[in-house]
Amino acid sequence: MLELASVTAGYEPRRPVFRGASLTVAPGEAVGLLGPSGCGKSTLARVAALLHRPDAGRLVLDGTEVTAWRHRAPRALRTAVGVVFQQPRTAADPRLTLADLIAEPLRATGRKGEAADRVAELAPAVGLTPELLTRRPHAVSDGQLQRACLARALSLRPRWLVCDEMTAMLDASTTAALVAAVETYREQTGAGLLAVGHDRVLLNRWCDRTVEWRDCLPAEGPPGR
Ligand SMILES: Nc1ncnc2c1ncn2[C@@H]1O[C@H](COP(=O)(O)OP(=O)(O)OP(=O)(O)O)[C@@H](O)[C@H]1O
Prior knowledge:
binds adenosine-5'-triphosphate, four-stranded antiparallel beta sheet, five-stranded parallel beta sheet, Rossmann fold, 10 helices, 2 domains, single chain, alpha/beta
């Protein structure tokens, strides 16, 4: 279970973006999160991915309460969640080839020896040819780079995936390919998914259920600041 309970988070002391947001994803479940621009969906997604420390509230992953975020989080928890962001350009090191980008989490966790096999397995799963794997980000399209970013997110076989507007910049065929790659991975591993987006039709089609941001907030009191 991925449980976000009464989470308050933001970027400035005493000025949270939202207060008391709660959301649960059951093992193997796919939950879509919809809401207006700027309400804090990405911030909550980053809390769930252990990338942003909340001001208050709880994140419980498979029964373990998370007490440290980012580099302070224990490796076993950090690697339990794979994350894909909206903008592949800002999420990818421009110096790395796509093969090295995909293998980055394996290198960072001392599993460099598995990198070649895992990249060979993941590249076709996300629709990347061997030739594309040798290129650097500046020499591939946004869609191709996003495919590599998805493969990177899957490289450590996470139990949870957080896709934050993963397909917002992409055309319909790349969107379909990436959603299919996520779904194949989930069928193979039973991973749960939190998919943040604006596209209600896509999220309804993709996810087991879709949650409105307002329904994540406490009923009483004004949402947000
Ligand atoms: N790094 C940051 N520093 C300061 N403020 C930030 C930062 N990131 C986001 N914010 C602010 O926090 C608020 C929530 O942003 P967030 O990206 O979580 O919203 P969102 O619901 O995902 O929006 P969108 O649907 O437009 O992506 C916004 O007002 C935004 O300007």
